[in-house]
Design brief:
Blueprint: H1 10-33, H2 37-58, H3 64-88, H4 93-115, H5 126-153, H6 157-177, H7 182-205, H8 217-237
């Protein structure tokens, strides 16, 4: 089958960051404002994610709408996992951040041991795609924990958090431009865009009393979802439906 992951372009990163914002604000809206609670929201989103993954895995190429729907749902579930550990089980953000970092490292280690590559340009088998989505889930969970650790436990706040994670992503981009390993820099950027999107989402949605701009979770979620849908429709109409895989392990 064709590669199941889109080309890494500015549109890719734009949708990725907005999906993380929706994951943060959407999860908060369902759990708090709708009143479903963390447990019910997590179970509901996990069921929708499972259904989306079944459809995604059945495709033989990259299909924009189902791929990005899966990313958004993974973002929400990843957020809910971290929130459940923090709010329900009262596990320290230091512990959860470290635990998710170890779990993600283990996924990468097993993936590389079996497939001999972590390149997203070679997702051409079901096994590789399962490794890919497992890694994506843990990047969202790790990014959520690390973002909450920085903005809440360490007291950076939403404004400073947005600046700090933007600077870190810029540093990763600069390292890539200077010849750093493409696979390593991609995954580092992927992890960092999660806390960036979450901090940005909180900055927009939280009340002014908590350091936000007070737009609310509904408005913020709908605004970003609208842009995501528009970009995905544009990608679909442009015929962005998969490419032949590359074979370089360093690509």
């Amino acid at each position: 089958m064709l590669n199941k992951v889109p080309e890494v372009t500015l549109v890719f990163w734009a949708i990725k960051i907005m999906s993380t914002t929706v994951g943060e604000t959407g999860a908060d809206y369902l759990a708090v404002h709708v009143g479903l609670g963390t447990t019910v929201t997590g179970l509901l989103m996990a069921g929708l994610l499972a259904a989306a993954l079944v459809v995604q895995l059945s495709m033989d190429r990259y299909v924009p709408w189902i791929y990005w729907l899966t990313v958004v749902l993974v973002s929400i579930v990843g957020t809910q996992i971290t929130d459940a550990l923090t709010d329900k089980l009262e596990i320290s953000l230091y512990v959860s951040t470290a635990a998710f970092a170890i779990a993600l490292t283990d996924v990468f280690a097993i993936w590389f041991t079996i497939e001999r590559t972590l390149s997203i340009h070679t997702i051409v088998t079901v096994r590789r795609e399962l490794f890919y989505w497992a890694a994506i889930l843990f990047t969202f969970a790790l990014g959520t924990a690390a973002g909450d650790l920085a903005t809440e436990a360490l007291g950076l706040g939403f404004n400073v958090g947005v600046v700090v994670f933007t600077v870190l992503i810029a540093a990763v981009a600069a390292a890539y431009a200077l010849g750093a390993n493409a696979v390593l820099t991609f995954w580092l950027a992927y992890i960092l865009t999660r806390p960036l999107g979450a901090s940005f989402g909180d900055l927009l949605s939280q009340s002014r009393d908590y350091g936000g701009l007070g737009f609310g979770t509904i408005s913020t979620s709908l605004a970003f979802l609208t842009v995501i849908v528009a970009l995905v429709i544009w990608l679909s109409l442009a015929g962005d439906t998969g490419r032949r895989p590359t074979t370089s392990l360093s690509d």
